Amino acid sequence: MNSMAAFQDPELCRGLLERLKSLIRACARPVRFMEVCGTHTVSIFQSGLRSLLPEGLTHLSGPGCPVCVTHDAEVAAMLNLARHDTVILATFGDLLRVPGPDGKSLKHAQAEGARVRVVYSPLDAVKLAAEHPHATVVFPGVGFETTAPGVAGAVLAAYKQRLGNFCILPFHKLVPPALRALLEKAPQEQGKGIDAFLLPGHVAVVLGVAPFRFVAEEFGRPAVIGGFEPADILSALCAMVSQIAEGRALAVNAYRRVVADEGNPAARSAMDMVFMPGEARWRGLGLIPASGLELRPEFEEFDALRRFGISLGETGSIPGCRCGDVLSGLLTPGECPLFGKSCTPQNPTGPCMVSTEGSCAAWYRYQGT
Ligand code: SF4
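A: This is the predicted complex of the input protein with iron/sulfur cluster.
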């Protein structure tokens, strides 16, 4: 059995599930946990774990899908730039179908003649800029601490090559400030708020444990870093629920085969060299201080917002779409009036149905309407 298969082993999972059931009984109260990672969302549904969770343990899917948390104003800025005559917008494919406030996406803009190119890494966008000296190549930097070091590397590469026609849209989001905002916003009554976090394994690979300690120390909620195989998730849930049963709250690394407690200092230092924390707009959570990444003054020439004089003002939002409430854990996808009716993966209304990591798409695909 290879190492990955070991974490999918049915016997191991059955044992962990039994342990989870007895821990939930020991809690003597319902527990609501939130994951904040698109890979966890998909894995929990795809493996069938969601339907096996014991009564009294509720799964909430939070703002973990990079495309979904990208704010309407940011999507509108991408669309406006893509339509600019001198611009080539170089993007990861998952942004192509995300609708802007007017319902149109980069895919529509591309069909109307905009130069939108799909790239597989931020460095591909730098290469594109070198190959097209008469255009400005703009790369939308979206996602979390997982993608930011790669985008920082692309900015450094363009800086070294003195490429004046490459820039980025600095739309990255930082997970720890979002957890704080979620805890401050969540209802405090028992059975309505967030009792614990299943922390994102990929983000923790970069950050380590320390940036998540405030969840336990200031808010008294367990926070457990978990992997993505069924046994990883069940182990993390056991570590979380046992704390609640014992009246404790700690930040715990339950994904040690991949995540070092200190994270990845080299990735953080690449990120820190190019970016500094700044205010960011999140779909559903609004403006959160120090939850995004701005370019440092020495790299501001690579800021597309600055170069094209764009300010992210108020924009409309997609009519009827409740993605913001879904991402905040205030609504389940099935409770959105559009779910499975006018909004389906084939004909998505909001980003949570567009992205394969979106909660609405996962609900639709694995649970049906
Ligand atoms: Fe948004 Fe569609 Fe999900 Fe409703 S079902 S929240 S419209 S993505």
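Residues 321-323, 326, 333, 336, 338-339, 343, 349-350, 352-353, 360 surround iron/sulfur cluster (CB under 6 Å). Residues 115 and 136 are 11 Å apart (CA to CA).
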